[in-house]
């Protein structure tokens, strides 16, 4: 990778040994701090995985490098650092399956592409069915997945028990487990590393990443974007502004007067103390509103569905922890002595059909990559790739053609609720 | 647990209520175009701040009522009953 003529040092086993032995000094910074220019070709609002991936692919695939990524806090501080790091592509609609499968494929060789260890572990992903209707949806999803070439099948309680011996698959529970949709390519990844890897690569291509730079206004002249204004009083001109925020996508789109079919809900998650490895698949239960995975450090990460009412508050609540603990113990009673270390919340921009909003808007030069509900992190790479193509060519590529903002007024919804509501 | 004040029953746990959503004015179904109707169904103001919204007290008086809530800190103040 070149960095304005100066090479970014490559990470490798050799460089690790060399630094371990004390040679080579301090590790260099992964990305630099810059003074903002007065004008950029593209301004991206939001320094999460979507914004940074868009910058990376604009530079890598389309040669556009005069880009600023503006982040109001630190990079990866929003949804990219608050999700439960689960990746999968076993969706319900053909549009969704194709899209998320492209993302899993990009994740599979992301570590090599970015020269950054993102610790992707394809350990398998299991969505439990506790009643006949969800078992029917699992069969439906499995068949849609197979048609798209995605490895996905329905397994019975005996096979579930073999994969997760600690699971209570007996018929005497309140919500007996009838089967599961099993998706071997699914798994977990280190979400911070994905953010840092894209930031480092974008920086090496000459992209400016400005942290603690909040956008407070977007200038529009005769229905064309001309630039943005930041909280520290700067005006940065740019013919293209991309809204890559999650949680604040309505507030940013309001700055140019583009209405959004979005409601913002908090989603809470929690993590336990670390224990020895015993759970090597991701387990999801839509009926019990929970999903569980064990990190490489041994902690169990729990997520849930969104809170029952819209809010921008990221305060955790005790009733969430109580409900979560009850549901997890329904699945794995042996966990009753585990202690929770912490809980947190992230903001989810929910759309009516549980699919994202990507592409052009009625305001020229204003692009959106928003409405990421509870499924944004897993779509980071493909969104960056598709948004970069959309910006470079001025029209959405085929893979995101179904996700345009105009679909809501035209009534062409892409209903993914059956596969996205709790199924992370 | 967060408390929500029902105009009939007073402050109760928020788990007794169902969130209906932002108070919006409904276009006349007889005259609205499909586009206007979809706009009414799908689009929201979704502000970070005070908003007028409708809740249903399912485990109490079973009435719909309007309230104003600040979506940033969940502070509340009463509002007129929405139709």
UniProtKB/TrEMBL annotation, chain A:
Gene Ontology molecular function: oxidoreductase activity
A Pfam family that the UniProt record links to this protein: DAO
A GO cellular-component term linked to this record: cytoplasm
Protein name (database record): Sarcosine oxidase subunit beta
Annotated SUPFAM superfamilies: FAD-linked reductases, C-terminal domain (SSF54373), FAD/NAD(P)-binding domain (SSF51905)
Sequence ranges assigned to domain FAD dependent oxidoreductase in this UniProt record: 41-389
Keyword annotations: Oxidoreductase
From TrEMBL, chain B:
Membrane-spanning intervals of the chain: none
Any one GO molecular function term: sarcosine oxidase activity
One Pfam match: SoxD
A GO biological process held by the record: tetrahydrofolate metabolic process
Gene3D superfamilies with a match to the protein in the record: Folate-binding superfamily
Protein name: Sarcosine oxidase subunit delta
Organism: Pseudonocardia sulfidoxydans NBRC 16205
Lineage: Bacteria, Bacillati, Actinomycetota, Actinomycetes, Pseudonocardiales
